[in-house]
Design goal:
By secondary structure, this protein is of the alpha/beta class. The protein has a single domain (49-259), classed as P-loop containing nucleotide triphosphate hydrolases (Rossmann fold), CATH 3.40.50. The protein contains eight helices and nine strands. It has helices spanning 9-12, 17-28, 34-45, 65-78, 133-142, 187-190, 204-220, 242-259, and strands at residues 3-4, 7-8, 54-59, 83-89, 115-121, 148-151, 168-173, 194-197, 231-233. The strands form two sheets. A seven-stranded parallel sheet has the order 5-4-6-3-7-8-9, with helices on both faces. Strands 1-2 form a two-stranded antiparallel ribbon. Strand 1 and strand 2 (7-8) form a beta hairpin.
């Protein structure tokens, strides 16, 4: 069986955190060859869908992506799931490493042996992800983490790479942040599988107005696969609307399964 760096897939599947960290370092350092990547894909393809779920969380800076990620970690842990998180951060202009920024919002989960959180430097890569992120999601799946949550760096209108490497893309917006109907023309609005309007505790009326604008935009521009992205109003800070978001995630997962049979 192929290795990830110096770690066999069999050992990685044991889920020991030190080995997972070492494997991810090998991925970031480009030490995984094509044969190993193919072996990883083969391993993952044998897993049931709920054992390799990947969720992307994207949106502009300041909309509350990290707070929402922390809330989702807790919800999935309460359901007995092992959760992996790849948080892509801006790069330091000095070291090239990740600026850990708002990772402090996930501090309560760092001592949980069933949660693995890794900050990854974007290293100048465009699209909201690191070059290593796609393969890193698969490494975490091999190690038994599902879901794997990918939180992008704060993105603009055209940075949509995350949609190609996750099963469900959450686009996080907030009322009063310039996310009006004009943004519906932007590429990032078109790739959302679920719209999440966060910070409703600050401006519920604004959140409801934004929700109606998004719904109207979807009526004008329908998707070819038939999926209509739900628009969920939440307050990650107050943990309201989270059960509706989890229902929407389940609905999308079931929809994906139905169209791939």
């Amino acid at each position: 069986m192929a290795d990830v760096g110096e770690i066999s897939l069999a050992a990685l599947a044991g889920g020991e955190m030190e080995l997972v960290a070492e494997a991810l370092s090998a991925v970031e350092d480009g030490q995984v060859d094509a044969a190993a990547a193919t072996a990883i894909d083969g391993f993952i393809n044998q897993l049931p869908a709920d054992a390799r779920q990947r969720i992307g969380i994207t949106g502009s800076p300041g909309v509350g992506k990290s707070t929402l990620t922390a809330v989702l970690i807790k919800e999935f842990r309460d359901r007995g799931r092992k959760v992996g998180v790849l948080a892509v951060d801006p790069s330091s202009v000095i070291s090239g490493g990740a600026l850990l920024g708002d990772r402090i919002r996930m501090h309560e989960h760092y001592r949980d042996s069933s949660v693995f959180i890794r900050s990854m430097s974007a290293r100048g890569h465009l699209g909201g992800l690191s070059v290593a992120t796609p393969l890193a999601t698969k490494v975490l799946a091999v190690a038994g983490y599902s879901p794997v949550i990918v939180e992008t760096v704060g993105v603009g209108q055209s940075e949509v790479e995350v949609m190609h490497h996750v099963d469900t893309t959450l686009l996080v917006l907030s009322p009063g942040a310039g996310d009006d109907i004009q943004s519906a023309k932007a590429g990032i609005m078109e790739v959302a599988d679920i719209f999440v309007i966060n910070k409703s505790d600050r401006d519920l009326a604004g959140a409801q107005k934004l929700r109606q604008e998004i719904i109207r935009s979807q009526e004008i521009s329908k998707r070819t696969n038939g999926w209509v992205a739900p628009v969920v109003i939440v307050s990650a800070l107050e943990r309201s609307g989270i059960s509706e978001l989890l229902d929407a995630l389940t609905d999308h997962q079931q929809f994906r399964a139905s169209i791939t049979r």
